[in-house]
Amino acid sequence: MLRKVLIANRSEIARRIIRACKELGLQTVAVYSDADRYALHVQEANEAYPLGLPPPVRSYLRIEKIIEIAKRSGCQAIHPGYGFLAENPDFAQAVEEAGLIFVGPSAQAIRLLGDKLAARRLAQSLGIPTLPGVMEKISDLQAARRAAETIGYPVLMKAAAGGGGKGMRVVYSPEELSSALERAMSEAHAAFGDSSVFLEKFVLRAKHVEVQILADNEGHVVHLCERECSVQRRHQKLIEESPAPLLTTSERTHLCEAAVRLACAARYRSAGTVEFLYDVAQQRFYFLEVNTRVQVEHPVTEMRTGIDIIQEQLRIASGERLSFSQADVRPRGHAIELRVCAEDPQNDFSPSLGKVVEVHFPEGEHIRIDHALQRGERIWPYYDSLLAKLILWGEDRQQAISRALEALDDFFVLGVRTTLGFHRNALEHPLFRSGEYCTDFVERERQKLLAAPPAEMITILAIAAAVRELTEYEGS
Amino acid sequence: MRFTVAIGYREIELEANPGNPSATVCWGSGEQPVRLEGQPGSKVYILRLGEQTHRMAIMKVGSEYLIQWRGHDFPVRVERGVARRYRALLQKTAPRLPKEPTAHMLTSHMPGLIGKLFIREGQRIEAGERLWVLEAMKMENEIKAPVPGVVEKIHAQEGTQVEKGQPVCTIRLGDLS
Question: What is the pLDDT confidence band of residue A241, given thresholds at 50, 70 and 90?
Fold first, then answer.
């Protein structure tokens, strides 16, 4: 049985895991880099230990140091959160070899599903459709040319060893192939130490739909329905919602069942996400990959199902069986998550570094905010730009969107540029409203999504400024 | 009190006057009660303008304000009326003037066209009385008198183009008899 858990992460997800531990009566141990000495996750854990310098390789990626702290502080388990070491099979293995519990799937499962080609072969063997592509690693132009011709242009080139948009290229014609391959291989090598790529059909109008699954040690697998995450920028999700708008009941059932089948076959344990791509023109689903960790957007599912995914992960890690069956999962209403990032949408979403001078959160019964923000917080270049996740629930999609708009008007972060204004524009956009948006939404609708409020609104700002100045004048 | 507010490339002239319980603001053709409510120590305010309410965060950054509203950041520059510019001008050109200035030279605060001139030389005017209309960026701004006095000299006639800082008229203060 677990009594004490080390959280090998930072920011909002570290706080989220600490909260789940507390609710289960577990002690918590935080770790931190020098940049995070005063961070909220450090304050909220029962104990906290330094890892080293701010760059992740010197701190949050130090496998041996983290395991040593876990043992020294008397932890039985390590929760990796997302990012950093969460999908590193060597870490999972090292944790287990040290006699500790890795809160997540087995090292073998991470290894199997982390290999994109192996995961695809598994899906195919189960009769789950995958995108037309060539199921082999490619590392020279001739092979790439043959593969592209077999699949038919346009093709998507992906790094075989990893994700995150690295090594990814869309190739529209044979002329572009050579230079695309060169750049993709060099990116893949830099990011993963493996330059091989693979090719698949590039779908022009696509939606990204994923299924949340939970599995215990005894092979019981349930799904917690789907999420749609098609609002993306450079393959980074910006808005997620559940249920996926426009999906039919039979499509939904079909997807969720496929995800469960895949998890069973991979002998999966803990929380995971099976990602699919929906080809709008063909009205077909294709398996993409499995994320073997808890995801940033897990609250969307929690808001709809009332199931605490992190608590379930901890229960499963301590050897408990799933306490509910598929029939007990009864999703209600609609949930939306907006990722508020320290990025400047006006400047190509480049990171906005600096100090948070003021932060004000909206409050309300159906509002959930997962964050690690405090006044004076510094935004560092070393880490993810995610500042906060604003999650809303509504009886239906319409209500969730209205609540999101209302919440955005009462959400302030001063000192750094954020994606707050972008979110407001996105929620008001007709394509988002209709649910017809695809993964190219942000790129295609760029102008509208980045527009400032219309000119007549400027007068209101002028009035506010003048009255503020008047107050200052009277006070002086 | 008159203010000139610059947001991006837009400049808006308005008048805001203290009052209890609400201040009043006049701009363009409108006049409305206005209140800016905030908590001590917080930069988040509620602007109550007539029947409307708007939540916004206002932060002073140097001589400017940064207003965050509906998720967007707006750098806003506020200048107090025309008098302030005149004070600056006086300090530069006539450092040894007596305590009470005897004349106000009014300059244009932005480039534009003197669309209409409401005054003539020798005319007595009250503070707040309209002097001319400045047309710029398809907007008409009514310029009002910052001080009472007598129009001593008109430097720019109706229909002429003026540059920023160009004198438009001089108002003589003091004995108004």
Answer: very high
Mutate which: A468, A473, A474, vs B, most B CBs within 10 A: A468
Question: φ, ψ for residue B95 (rounded to 5)?
Answer: -65, -20
Does residue A19 carry a catalytic annotation? no
CB-CB neighbours of B9 under 10 Å: 6
Of B133 and A220, the structure prediction assigns the larger pLDDT to A220
Q: What is the largest CA-CA distance in chain A?
A: 77
The position carrying tokens 């598929």 is A326
Q: Which H or E run contains B117?
A: strand B112-117
A439 pLDDT band, cuts 50/70/90, is: very high
A298-319 exposure pattern, b = at least 16 Cβ within 10 A, e = fewer: bbbbbbbbebbbbbbbbbbbbe
CA angle A62, A68, A71 (to 5 degrees): 140
Output the CA torsion sign for A108, A110, A116, A119: positive
What b-and-e string marks burial along A428-465, b requiring 16 or more CB atoms within 10 Å of the CB? ebebbeeeebbbebbeebeeebbebbeeebbbbbbbbb
Report the gap between the CA of A421 and the closest CA in chain B (Å).
4
Spell out the alpha helix ranges (H) of A73-125: 89-97, 107-114, 116-125
For A125-164, write each residue's pLDDT tens digit.
999 999 988 878 898 999 999 999 999 999 999 888 766 6
CA neighbor of A278 nearest in space, from A251, A238, A259? A251
Q: What is the pLDDT of residues A28-68, one digit of tens each?
A: 999 999 999 999 999 999 999 999 999 999 999 999 999 99
Q: Please state at what angle helix A298-305 crosses helix A309-317, rounded to 10 degrees.
A: 100
Beta bridge partners of B72: B69
For residues A143-152, one letter each, b for 16 or more C-beta atoms within 10 angstroms of the residue's C-beta and e for the rest, the string is bbeebbeebe
Per-residue 3-state assignment (H helix, E strand, C coil) for A237-253: EEEEEECCCCCCHHHHH
Distance from CA of B155 to the nearest CA of A (A): 30
| Strand A270-279 with A367-371, pairing | unpaired
Largest CA-CA distance found in chain B, in angstroms, rounded: 55
Q: How do beta strands A221-233 and A206-215 pair? A: antiparallel
Question: Which chain A positions have a beta carbon within 8 Å of B37's beta carbon?
Answer: none
pTM score: 0.82
Q: Would you call B55 and A408 a contact, using CB atoms and an 8 Å cutoff?
A: no
Number of A–B residue contacts, CB under 8 Å = 131
Query: Does residue A314 contact residue A103 with C-beta atoms inside 8 Å?
Result: yes
SS3 A107: helix
A86-101: average pLDDT: 97
d(CA A206, CA A282): 10
Cβ–Cβ below 8 Å for A470 and B18: yes
Whether residue A190 is predicted with pLDDT greater than 80 in this model: the reply is no
Tokens of A268: 């999966």
Structure confidence by residue, pLDDT tens digits, A266-306: 999 999 999 999 999 999 999 999 999 999 999 999 999 99
